[in-house]
Specification:
Elements: E1 9-10, E2 25-26, E3 44-51, H1 58-71, E4 76-85, E5 89-96, E6 99-106, E7 112-119, H2 125-136, E8 141-144
Parallel strand pairs: 1-2
Antiparallel strand pairs: 3-7, 3-8, 4-5, 5-6, 6-7
Helix pairs in contact: 1-2
C-alpha cells in the first residue's frame, strides 16, 4: 500500500515582511494580513454588491462594464463578454490593460448583483460604487481589499 505525503503547507507567519520562497505554500489565517509578495506591483481590489428591482440583462452588464472602464480610467483590451447560467442569471467580464472586472447578476433566489474589480492601476472606488448605484439602483455595499 502506498503512502501519500502531506502537502507542504507552512504555518501562518507573524514575521513582518516574510516572503515564502518560490515553490513553498503559505496559508494565512483570516485574522492576519496577507504578505505582499510583489510590493512593486500596485494591486487594488473592490467588491460592490446590491439588490436590484428587475433582472439584469447582458446588455445592461456590458453597458455597465464599458462605462466602468471610462469612469475609473482603465484601457479596455477586450470588450465585455457575457454568459447566462440557466439556473442563476447573467455574468460578465471585461479585460483591461491593467487587469479587469467581473460582474455577476442573480435572478434566483433573489435579484442581486456582485462586481469584483481588480486593477494594477489606482482608481477611485467611490466612483465605481456611484456608477453601480446609478445603473442598478438602491444603495450598494462595497469593500476595498
Amino acid at each position: 500500500m502506498s503512502q501519500q505525503s502531506a502537502s507542504p503547507v507552512l504555518a501562518p507567519t507573524t514575521v513582518p515582511g516574510h516572503v515564502p520562497s518560490p515553490g513553498s505554500l503559505l496559508r494565512v489565517s483570516p485574522a492576519e494580513p496577507m504578505p505582499d509578495l510583489a510590493p512593486m506591483i500596485h494591486r487594488q481590489r473592490l467588491v460592490i454588491e446590491g439588490y436590484c428591482d428587475a433582472p439584469i440583462s447582458a446588455e445592461a452588464i456590458s453597458a455597465f462594464l464599458t462605462e466602468l472602464s471610462d469612469t475609473i480610467g482603465m484601457v479596455t483590451l477586450v470588450e465585455p463578454v457575457t454568459h447566462k447560467s440557466p439556473l442563476y442569471g447573467w455574468a460578465g467580464w471585461i479585460h483591461w490593460e491593467t487587469s479587469g472586472a467581473h460582474f455577476y447578476a442573480w435572478d434566483q433566489p433573489l435579484l442581486f448583483f456582485s462586481v469584483d474589480v481588480y486593477a494594477c492601476k489606482p482608481f477611485q472606488a467611490r466612483d465605481a460604487v456611484a456608477l453601480a448605484a446609478r445603473h442598478f439602483g438602491g444603495a450598494p455595499v462595497w469593500k476595498e481589499f
